[in-house]
Amino acid sequence: MSDPFATAGELSQLIGNTEPTDLSRMQLFLDLASAEIRRYTAQTLSTVAADVVILPALERTTLILPERPVTAITTVVAGGVTLSSATDYWFTRAGLLHAGTIAVEGTFWSSGATVTYDHGYAETTDEYKALKAVCLESASRAYTLNERSASEAMGSTLMESAGYAPEVFLTLGEKMSLADFGKVLVG
């Protein structure tokens, strides 16, 4: 399981709750919002080092790594041989692994490949900050539901107590913000 994109302290600051008493509840909503973002994009998005993936055999000169952005490739083994990044392959941040100068068109990845690579966004990047913003907005909606609208909708009864659990979801605007983070679909 990957860490959430934000902390309960950050959510507390966002909603102006200077002395939160239910940090574990806040953290739950952040965990759920982060999971919803990862489910929607079909990507881990956080930094992962030395991830290993076995790619199937294809009669192509380009393979697609499942996670992006690709930040480094440590090793590529194809047909039982460890390949050299200097001549045998090159990659893009978008997750495309291209055969290098020794490739014969259509046959280079015919035995598949095992790739060890790093991927995801560092917490200091603008992309990660955008993910954090979506996570905080989604979690704050669920968290503040009881504080703002519950008393209006159910009198003084909390919505959860009345059988209405807070819902963590992504708005259309948030989904649009996440559009560039989704899986690469290359035909």
Walkthrough of the structure:
With 187 residues, this protein is of the alpha+beta class. It has 2 domains: 96 residues, no CATH class; 72 residues, no CATH class. The protein has 5 helices and 7 strands. It has a 4-stranded antiparallel β-sheet with strand order 1-7-3-4, with no helix packed on it. A 3-stranded antiparallel β-sheet has the order 2-6-5, with no helix packed on it. It is elongated and about 60 Å long. The two termini are 30 Å apart. About 4% of the residues have low confidence.
Helix content: 25-40%
Oligomer: single chain
Distance between the termini: 30 Å
Low-confidence stretches: 148-154
Q: What structural category arises from helix and sheet content?
A: alpha+beta
**Which outline best applies?**
elongated
Count up the domains.
2
Q: Helix-strand pattern, N to C? A: HHEEEEEEEHHH
Quickly count the helices: 5
| Share of β-strand residues | 15-25%
List keywords for this structure.
187 residues; alpha+beta; 7 strands; four-stranded antiparallel sheet; single chain
Kindly summarize this structure in a few lines.
This protein has 187 residues and is α+β, with helices and mostly antiparallel strands. Helix content is 33%, strand content 19%.
Blueprint of the fold:
Elements: H1 8-15, H2 23-41, E1 48-55, E2 62-64, E3 70-78, E4 81-82, E5 89-91, E6 96-99, E7 113-119, H3 126-148, H4 150-154, H5 172-178
Antiparallel strand pairs: 1-7, 2-6, 3-4, 3-7, 5-6
Helix pairs in contact: 1-2, 1-3, 2-3
